[in-house]
Amino acid sequence: MIKRTLFFFLAASLSFMVFSFSDNEEGVATPNQNVIKTIVVDPGHGGSDAGAHGEYSYEKDICLDISLKVGKLIQQEFPEVKLLYTRTTDSYPSLHGRADYANENKGDLFLCIHVNSAPSKKVVTGYKTVTYYSKGKKRTRKVAQYKRVPSTATGTETYIWGAHKSEDKEIAVRENAYMLKEDNYEKKYGDFNPESPEFVALTLLKTKQYFKRSATLAGFVQDEFAKVGRVDRDVKQRGVGIWVLQATAMPSVLVETGFISNPDEEKYLNSEAGQNEISVCIIKALKRYVKWLEDKKGQDIMPDSFEEKNTTSRSANDTREFLEAIDKKEKAALVK
Ligand SMILES: [Zn+2]
What we know:
binds zinc ion, Aminopeptidase, two-stranded antiparallel sheet, 12 helices, 8 strands, alpha/beta
């Protein structure tokens, strides 16, 4: 029984790896065709949720404009890729709705487009003398006068889900595993049990792979922004507010394209030239990411000795060791 499920785990992990890169029997990768089949573009906010606002514009509108431009370029550069949007109008799909849509359509990438905002700052503009009475005596004191000035925060950040949210991502991966979507999966896959440690380990593996892919794409996006002179605020992990990133069973990134709270950047974000520049940067990053996947670098999370170990049966301890080895390798790769 153990032997059988472990065998299943190993076979499944290999077929999952193959599945992610090529769907055809021969395993021949055609450029732009197999490594990514479906991209889900998610323009942030929408409808009654306007997101952040600047002096004259709203985040939701900029997100939609840029997303549609990115989509157009995706269609040009990757004509074989199925392109989906979570919204194409000024509407508000719920976060659950967005994640479900991406999962149901078996997206290979979830790309959220947002606009950043930083609170304005209070600055002292001078002092005013005020008169007041205390215990019957007339007194004066100086009171600082303030005005609010926009934050000078500027530039781009790209988010991936927080590492402490990996558990949620694992659940999303597990619940959306292709096998579970097939009818009679029990018949097809024998005594396969989605609650088994082996299957859980497999989804952990998949989650790690998605993490690596997301972090890599995010790095490419920031790199392309830096190349055109945008302020690079780096790849970040955020614990709150990025629920969709961990609810989608696929690599996922959220691009904060600039600060609407900064008047200069607000102009840039609303301009045709600015939106085009942002979209081109994202596409260049996507092309690098696809190339990286085609070079099979995105699947290299196995310990080097995996193939040999594969032939012998494993105990639960072996599985743990195996996952720890992946963990170490992942950590080494992620530390810059
Ligand atoms: Zn936002």
